[in-house]
Amino acid sequence: MPLAIETTNLTRRFGAATAVRALNLRVRSGEIFGFLGPNGAGKTTTIRMLCGLLLPSEGTACVAGMDVTRDAEAIKLQVGYMPQRFSLYGDLTVEENLDFFAGVYRIPGRERRRRVANTLERVGLLERRADLTEHLSGGLKQRLALGCALVHAPAILFLDEPTAGADPSSRQQMWDLLYQAAGEGRTILVTTHYVEEAERCQTIAFMHGGRLIGSGSPEQCRAEIGEAILEVDAVPVMQAAEAVRGIAGVTGVSIYGHTLRVFSRMTEGLEGELDAALRGREVVVRGIRSVPPTLEDVFMSLTRTAPADVQDA
Amino acid sequence: MLAVVGHVARKELRQILRDRRSLVLILVMPIILTFLFGKALETGELGHIPSVILNLDGSSESNRIASAFRTYDEVLIEREVSTLTEAQDLLARGQIKAAIVIPKGFLQQIEAGDEAQLLVLLDGTDNTSAPIVEGVAQRVIQRYNTERAIRGLWERGVRPDRGRRLIRPVFVQSEIRYNPGRQYLGYVMPGVIGLTLQLLTVMLMAITIPRERERGTLDQLMASPITRLELILGKLLPFFGISLLNVATILFVTDRWFGIPVADRLPLLVLLCALFVLTSLATGLLISAVSRSQFQAVQIAVFYVLPVFMLSGAYAPIEAIPDYIRPISFLFPLMYFSRTVRAVTLRGADLAQIWPDVAILGGFVVVFLYWAILSFHKRVN
Questions:
Q1: N or C: which end of chain B has fewer CB within 10 A?
Q2: Nearest-5° Cα angle at B79, B75 to B83
Q3: pTM for this structure?
């Protein structure tokens, strides 16, 4: 499959700080590519470089076969961008916003009206077309923003947290729209905080401290996790967590309701050690079992095992 | 390209029309400003300056001088006072601008051959009236001296016509060709028009790009293939249209309320105003392109608009500005605008006489727009 996006050692510095370091990214044409990572990991900076809004400090990036440094304006015709922050005109109506952005992408009169009507219907805003955009709810604003990024039928879509703060049903609707766009052959690069959204992507990449710390399909990522995960059902749960943290080889413990999720570099004999440590602390252990990792586990694990310079960042 | 410019212009116009409160302000403020500035600077005809005479001598000669003052329109001798204290008191209270004092022993001094003196007390806080009264006093005395010399010769048997030929007095005859009432309003009104047009256009344009930046909409625009020229022209056009409406109302106010003849030279004045509005819009766009926030844009705009009024000869002739500061005046379009509008309204100049200034204004538009485009980047470096 041809590559829609390819970066080589892509780096961006802001003064003394490095937001993105030597990023090598390969996004195949037509896939939904999920970009995960905590705030400040460099996801937005990467997207802004790929959209031609920000010049790379070092390295190269090709989008739709064109170089972002040399051909930024030509790339812009091929891509749609939905920024993290709502950035449409609140004092224009839904339809006027779509019409404006279609016009800015040089779509001529009759064709523009057709596209605007289609997009209104597609994102489910036909009835709200005459409403001022600032009066829309958050979820509807996000759908309109997607519409504005789609109205010129771009080959590649950059979506920076398109579902931030949205309720589950709005998120579901947004993802239905993303699948529809992907079904039309568009490449989608989407950033998210929500790990369950990452499961919906064909490929995911984890960013941390400006670096890519892991990537692959969700299945691959789960399979390649370098740690074992045990679910411990024990009361009282706080004392149990404390006891487990002291065991050599345990890298992380998270509490989920009445259970602990224990990450460890050891794979053999861990259960026995856990059991022993917990009994010594007068904790009642109701069960210990090995569980498959979720993407969140993968992400937490990758974050812990990232190189030291990433940890500092 | 034109299609995109039109598209941006239509979007801007929609936003302007939708913001009713600002729209009213944009359309009404110029009328109010022109009216207020005009009225504030309207000093009326510089004549009938309220004055009194204190004739302490009471001789035939002093009476002659006192009555000579009454023949000049520039001063209005309200009455004769009888003491110096009274004259000083009136002056101190601002009821008169000048007191003409003929001291006791005036005639005696003349006859003794001493230098006789006329005292004029002036209110120096009004620096336009004081020199006028002083000038009148000089002329009164010059005439009096000549007449007295002729009378002296006549007493010695020389006939007055022959006496006049002997003395050969010279008088200054000044004839004011333009702005006959020498009204300050006629001088300052073009500056007021320019200031009003400039204030609004610079401010409105200055905030347009930072506002998009603050609302986040600039990101979406910069991610699109729109060119800088398209964006800047698209933003300029609707404000240009609105400013032309303002030009019409301002010229109307100037003509009707301030009696400055506009109708005779309407096409030329509209051309000058339109050109000047373009320079201001381009200046505003330049400020807009370099400002990071609306607050910063307004700050820069204020720092531009205020000194301009003082330094551009809109308010006082640039010849009054010290040599080392004067070159700055030539950097402001308002200087050329008020100069040419004054030439047109006061001297009746036509395009053939003012074309260099018109060309300079056109040059400002091109340079500022180009500069604005260069200062505005679609990409952060």
A1: C
A2: 115
A3: 0.79
